[in-house]
Amino acid sequence: MNILPNNMRFGAGQPVKRLEDQRLLTGKGQFIDDKAEDGALWLYVLRSPHAYAKIVSIDAAAAREIAGVQAIYTGADLVADDVGTIPTLAIFKRPDGKPMTVPPRRLLAHEVVRFTGEAVAAVVATSRTIAQEAAEAIAVDYEVLQAVTDPVKALEPGAPVVWAEAPDNIVAAMSYGDAAKVEEAFSSAAHKVSLDITSQRLVPSAMEPRSTIAEIEKKTGRLLLHVQSQTPASTRDVLAEAVLKRPKESVRVLVGDIGGGFGQKTNLYPEDGIVAYAATKLAKKIRWRAERTDEFVGGTHGRDLTSTAEFALDAKGRVLAYRVRSIGATGAYSSGAANIIPLVLGPFVQTGVYDLPLVHFEVKTVMTHTAPVGAYRGAGRPEAVFIVERLFDTAARQIGIDPRAIRKANYIKPAQLPYTNAVGQVYDSGAFAHMLERASKLADWDGFNARKREAKKRGMLYGRGLTSYIEWTGGRAHTEKVSLHATSEGRVILHSGTMAMGQGLQTTYTQMISDTLGIPLDKIDVVQGDTDLATGFGSVGSRSLFVGGTAVAVSSNDLITKAREKASNLLETAVEDIEYRDGVLTVVGTDRRISLFEIAGKERQAKLSVDSEGEVDGPSWPNGTHVCEVEIDPETGISRVVRYTTVDDVGVAVNPMLVAGQIHGGVAQGIGQALYENVAYDADGQLLTATYQDYCIPRADDVPPIVVTLDDSAPCRTNPLGAKGCGESGAIGGPPCVTNGVMDALFELGITNLQTPLTPEKVWQAISEAKAAKAKASA
Hints:
Number of strands: 28
Helix content: 25-40%
Shape: globular
Radius of gyration: 28 Å
Distance between the termini: 70 Å
């Protein structure tokens, strides 16, 4: 971890309004679709209408005759041209101990398609309309095969096989803990609690659909790729080295504004690769833009974890052992993180904020004939926390213990920190019982019964949800490089490899630099998304501020150090006698001074520059407690979240207002997961939820006022800022909190478990069946 001077301030705690918003809200954003056409050709992708089929033949003769068509590519063309495949991390083992194996992810399907929506051919034409018309004129002869879309059914004997080299459809498996000791604890436990739990498949819903432009730079012959990517450097490397098989230096990736990422825009997509390939083949600018349905059928999905979870508890509610068996779906292909998410990231936090040392976790990843599963806000941590929090609420009801009391009995105590959890992850800081106490008071816990009685008078069911969550952040990349420049024009410029996609990084980085250098905010420029200027790890796993921000802090200090050295030479005095303050370097006790920007003017290229690296000791562990109240209309089954309170530990918050905004957004997505959102395939692999007419996301009036309180009583110890990640917290705490609230409201009817999403139809049906069963029992 970097050690920084004690007098460095970093602008912590200042709710500066987002600097990005002025241009974004006035139509001056730099999104890909804003770029001028400049004679670009358009690419359109023809997708498979079948979930599993052999490609018998592709006849593009009629399409080639359409005026304006410039080129048509098929998978066979790309194979003949030695175009590579998109790699995955094959780092796990199958249950038999052999290395994992997955089908190659090609830019265009070759010989076989494995999910509805897989790209089969690409047409390049003078307009998007012509490209689409030509694509629809291509005749593809398919031999349709039986598909499997349910990961549980994919494990059954005789199930359709996605990839012949994995005849059981299992990609990989991992286990944690001691099965024998857990079984022994269960055999003598006073209480046993079991739940079947599903975190259903979701579609990330960014405001801006994916889009790509590729062109050959005339002066240099380099390939320029304009793309939406949270990780520009790795996008460049995969495209260059794995797909196009050329030096990575010959490719420059440029990323402007991104209208939402949520993890979905982390990897190189086949569409990005085929656009780049077409640009190199035709030496023309090529552009592609997804329609919303393209995102549903061709983009990565999130979640899709099916689990059976069990607690063994003593008479007082102390958990003696914890057992989970999970199946994580990867879809037809493995994206970069498809296996890491359920096999590693979920287990990292599966014990939550609780002292549960005796565990046994078994996880398998399974292929199905569906769109690939990838990172989506939280990536494994929402699924894992959902399991333990649902189980704690169920245990509390079964045993007859207050949901707060059972959590207090199992919390990690302050004296146990730093705490090593059951899978070897070290929590450096936290005050978990304290967070619960604060949230209880702020949520008016004691006033709940009165609100419940009032709701009952109106014929409503009323429940309360509680969740204590924790998150692992960092993306397993604990260093980040930046460069910082002071120019003779009086500006400070930061080049960073992290990537803004709505988090407000321009604002927080600018705050930090301004506060440390004493330079006005409007004199600072933050430049991201250009692999010629910075090639850091990027923005995944809520790492941007606590890792990337550490690099910014280091660079500010490095620039001051370098400026003092330059000033000592120019002012002919010892470095120790040079004082820096607000952009001016002064010889102590004299009026001899020189400004930072005057020094820059004497440097080569008229700028003073430093290249710096920030390093943290490990991940950060943001955590908190969420409390919500839910009202259900038993006549319609409609559930509404009417109150929502959070207390969140993000360590030291550089900009509390931006943190609160991140938590708001995450909670909104959590409400969507709990109540509305669900990807549905039919038995033949057809996507039934391919538009927002069929796939429901929360509207503004579905999200209640969310009261966010930040607690900085336990700053992070793994980085010099004391900061913890915050971008995914709301999406981790939100789903179990809302689900627990709905189940609390339904418990009085004898309803103990429903799978999300808790749609009106599902809730109404459960209520109707419960009432019918009660009537039958009393007859």
